[in-house]
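Quick one before lunch.
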Amino acid sequence: MKTFEKIKSDTFYFDSCDGCEAKCCDGRYGSLFAQIILEDFKEVSEYFPILFIYGELGYLKPVILLTNGNSLCKYNKDFKCTIYENRPSICRNYPLSAHLDNSIYIDKSCPALQSNNGSKIIENEKILNDFNTYDFNNYQEKYINMHIYFDKFNKEENLKPIIFLNNVMFYSFRNSFDDYYINLQMNSLKNLDKYYNI
Ligand code: SF4
Ligand code: SF4
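Model of the iron/sulfur cluster complex:
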């Protein structure tokens, strides 16, 4: 299971995925869905269903459904990503993860993480350039902008339940309101196929 911890002053190296059975892409190890921000919508809509869940305070959170909860991501073949150049930012960032308080988290269960072997990915809470993505540049502001954006559409009658997986209900908008992001969300439903147990 993933065990993300806030990075303090540690230095981490990333060695290699060789020999790992891609636990980071596997629903059986907790990879079911991932939250996205507005900047992610266009690219992920080509490959994954974008759906919404309700946060604790009733806000709408857009997510991508990565797996069906029982197997590897459908884009993983022989433990390799077949859409590597177009994989979502959540996958690019892994084993690092951006957080609402603008701190960085790391999944210490990833076997490629080493204390002194491979490519250095983070040092003194700073991500090395090759591993830095737009997510880590003021994630808090992007996250809040995303919430504010969808809040104006957040009415019960605008949303319909689509799929219930691992005790989570996922929703879609019923119509696009001629809105760029909701259009992308609705178009992304083309990716909601039998793989997700529909
Ligand atoms: S990133 Fe980590 S968990 Fe994912 S395939 Fe590589 S070694 Fe395995
Ligand atoms: S898109 Fe690629 S890296 Fe991401 S979960 Fe699927 S197979 Fe893994």
